[in-house]
């Protein structure tokens, strides 16, 4: 049986918010996929200049930070991170895909805590207030996504 631990999100990832950059509906020199709201779900948001851009690797989780669907996450994408998206780069305590599954599962929790009177935003202190429970062993994380029954920690049975 694997040991489970709990930690605030800020101890598992580094956050980097995207920036405004030049964009185009067409590919150009030094332009790559632009990862906005549609792009993090696999759609096409066009292309963006890599100059001064925040670049996502396929191991990063991307979270929509602003807008009605803030808290939505995507994984496995490479490209320029849009200004409405934040890049979450996992450290060695958590497997990248396992992090994505955990955050996908917390979408409603994040949506319930959005801030802002006009455009809703993910809470600025998300790294502190969102605590994630995960297997300590990276081998267990790799074998068992959180949505599977095998990843659920055993419940504590009351003593009689």
For the structure shown, list the relevant keywords.
alpha+beta, globular, 5-stranded mixed β-sheet, Adenine-n6-DNA-methyltransferase TaqI, Chain A, domain 2, 16% helix, disordered C terminus
Short description:
By secondary structure, this protein is an alpha+beta fold. It has helices at 96-105, 107-112, 126-129, 138-143, and strands spanning 4-8, 13-17, 23-24, 31-35, 47-49, 55-56, 61-64, 73-75, 79-81, 85-90, 131-135. It has a single domain, classed as Adenine-n6-DNA-methyltransferase TaqI, Chain A, domain 2.
What does the model show?
The protein is of the alpha+beta class and 160 residues long. It has a single domain, classed as Adenine-n6-DNA-methyltransferase TaqI, Chain A, domain 2, CATH 3.90.220. The chain has 4 helices and 11 strands, in the order ββββββββββαααβα. Strands 3-5-4-9-6 form a 5-stranded mixed sheet, with no helix packed on it. Strands 2-10-7-8 form a 4-stranded antiparallel sheet, covered by helices on one side. It has a two-stranded antiparallel ribbon with strand order 1-11. The longest helix has 10 residues. It is globular and about 50 Å long.
Helix/strand layout:
Blueprint: E1 4-8, E2 13-17, E3 23-24, E4 31-35, E5 47-49, E6 55-56, E7 61-64, E8 73-75, E9 79-81, E10 85-90, H1 96-105, H2 107-112, H3 126-129, E11 131-135, H4 138-143
Parallel strand pairs: 4-9
Antiparallel strand pairs: 1-11, 2-10, 3-5, 4-5, 6-9, 7-8, 7-10
């Amino acid at each position: 049986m694997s040991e489970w631990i709990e930690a605030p999100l800020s101890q598992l990832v580094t956050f980097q918010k995207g920036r405004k950059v030049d964009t185009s509906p067409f590919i150009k020199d030094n332009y790559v996929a632009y990862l906005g709201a549609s792009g993090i779900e696999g759609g096409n948001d066009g292309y963006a200049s890599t100059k001064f851009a925040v670049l996502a690797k396929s191991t990063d989780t991307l979270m929509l930070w602003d807008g009605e669907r803030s808290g939505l996450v995507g994984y496995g994408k490479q490209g320029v991170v849009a200004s409405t998206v934040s890049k979450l780069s996992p450290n060695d305590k958590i497997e990248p895909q396992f992090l994505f599954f955990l955050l996908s599962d917390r979408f409603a929790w994040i949506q319930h805590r959005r801030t802002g009177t006009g455009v809703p935003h993910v809470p600025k202190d998300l790294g502190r207030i969102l605590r994630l429970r995960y297997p300590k062993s990276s081998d267990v994380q790799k074998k068992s996504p959180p949505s599977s029954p095998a990843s659920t920690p055993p419940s504590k049975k009351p003593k009689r």
